[in-house]
Write a structure and sequence with these properties.
33 strands, 2 domains, Neuraminidase, signal, mainly beta, cell division, Rossmann fold
Length: 452
Amino acid sequence: MTVKRFLIPALAPVLAPVLAIALMALSGVQTPAQAQSGPLRIEITEGVIEPLPFAVPDFVDEGGAGEYARNIARVIASDLSGTGLFREIPREAHIARVSSFDNSIGYEDWKAINAQAVITGAVTVSGDRIVVKFRLFDVFSGQQLGEGLQFAGTTQTWRRMAHKVADAAYSRITGEGGYFDTRVVFVSESGPKNQRLKRLAVMDYDGANVQYLTDSSSIVLAPRFSPTGDRILYTSYATGFPRITLMDVGSLRTQTLAEQQGTMTFAPRFSPDGGRVVFSLERGGNSDLYMLTLGSGNLSQLTNAPSIETAPSFSPDGSQIVFESDRSGTQQLYIMPASGGEARRISGGQGRYSTPVWSPRGDMIAFTKQHQGRFHIGVMRTDGSEERLLTASFLDEGPTWAPNGRVIMFTRETSGAGGSAALYSVDISGRNLRQIPTDGAASDPAWSPLLP
């Protein structure tokens, strides 16, 4: 049997222990993207979607698995149900019981409870090593969707394996890329509202496995992952003034970038190739956009206007930058070539627009909008058309895209002296608004790419 091996994660050791995963088809090597298509499909539109009913029986214990067999199945079910596109049929409603991974499922038993998809699996544990394998079945067509996949690694990374199974099932049914095997970097907050202590933290996309990257001795803001997930950019007040800082996630080593006396730097973001950083630099009360080439240290100025230019974000192909500016009198969104030059305004509605972020798909821009005393997270086409507001509250801000361009995470803060910040996610159709569980207040989320 041919085995494809690769390291997971590139973010070790801070984000997760080093894991060697074997990804192999149970009948020939095959990845989820290559899996055979079948009649079971969710067509994702902007209208109301009827969730697809599915079942995930506890995985079969093929030796030493214990609670891992049940826990992995529960994480898979939670991942899929959390999208709003799937509805789990609870275990107590199951007629059939899966006692062997190699046996065919009884399709009629699953039809009887209206399951349209069934995920079966098995787990083997030996020492600190774990092997997880699964199959996905289309009940009504009576066939397996794609080849089975197998993952092998350490028991510490069992949740990652569950996320990978869910990603594969999600991709096969929807035709879109998954986003469960990802991390989110954010600002963890504590203390009273008028004197918050802030430190950088990372977690799984669903709030599990939180790890802290900095202490709370200085304010940190706006962390951003590199395209490969091994570095983080953020704004630090360690010197008393805002400075953009680059952190190596594996070693936690940091360095300050683009230091120039008498200036403040903030709102950094990586280019799609990870070789450049675009950010705001304030000098003499005026903020413009600059580009820093990390390899050479070359610094170039992109804008030169008597206004505030900030919150830049690259297009996925690296050719353009969207940013916010008050050059027209209020905060609005503009797009210009990545090398600088003439900018065109794309926001045209009433209110103020800020924190634009280009979708990984390249077709949309997410933003924060303030209008009539309310804050919104919205999306628009890259030419400013088809603006759609997804949320509304006292304070919603700072969107970040899941790597498949389907889901947006953001900060929501409640009003009053006792108000606090929390992380929420929402589908780009405005459906499925959910709070992400965190231990205490949290803000400024930034989604990682899919882990390797």
